[in-house]
Specification:
The strands form two sheets. The chain has a six-stranded mixed β-sheet with strand order 2-10-9-4-5-6, with no helix packed on it. The protein has a four-stranded antiparallel β-sheet with strand order 1-3-8-7, with no helix packed on it. It is globular. By secondary structure, it is mainly beta. A hairpin with a 4-residue loop joins β7 and β8 (about 75-80). Helices cover about 0% and strands about 50% of the residues. It has strands at about 5, 10-15, 20-25, 35-40, 45-50, 55-60, 65-70, 75-80, 90-95, 110-114.
Length: about 110
């Protein structure tokens, strides 16, 4: 069973930065487009950023220019560098394949104070 373990969240002031990591069991990231999602209580999970096996990235408009998704296939890890954070970025962040193939991990809480 594939396991996804997110880490790196925390409390940060607006304008600050965080780097999230997602450790993925096995080698699935080598054959899957991967993505970061976020969810706020009472709202649907939102896809934030995605990266293909070839390294092509795309982002939801609200994070373009501030977030960067990357992958390290040798470490089976996906990253999300988040800069210029805003209070509206506050959410639980999850990683999964681009189409959410696998069981969701516990996520990592990101809280941005104003």
């Amino acid at each position: 069973q594939v396991q996804l373990v997110e880490s790196g969240g925390g409390l940060v002031q607006a304008g600050g930065s965080l780097r999230l990591s997602c450790a993925v069991s096995g080698t699935i990231i080598r054959v899957n487009s991967m993505a970061w999602y976020r969810q706020v209580p009472g709202k649907q999970r939102e896809l934030v950023a995605a990266i293909t096996t070839g390294g092509t990235t795309n982002y939801v408009d609200s994070v373009k220019g501030r977030f960067t998704i990357s992958r390290d296939n040798a470490k089976n890890t996906v990253y999300l560098q988040m800069n210029s954070l805003k209070p509206e970025d506050t959410a639980v962040y999850y990683c999964n394949s681009r189409i959410g193939l696998y069981s969701w991990g516990q996520g990592t809480q990101v809280t941005v104070s104003s």
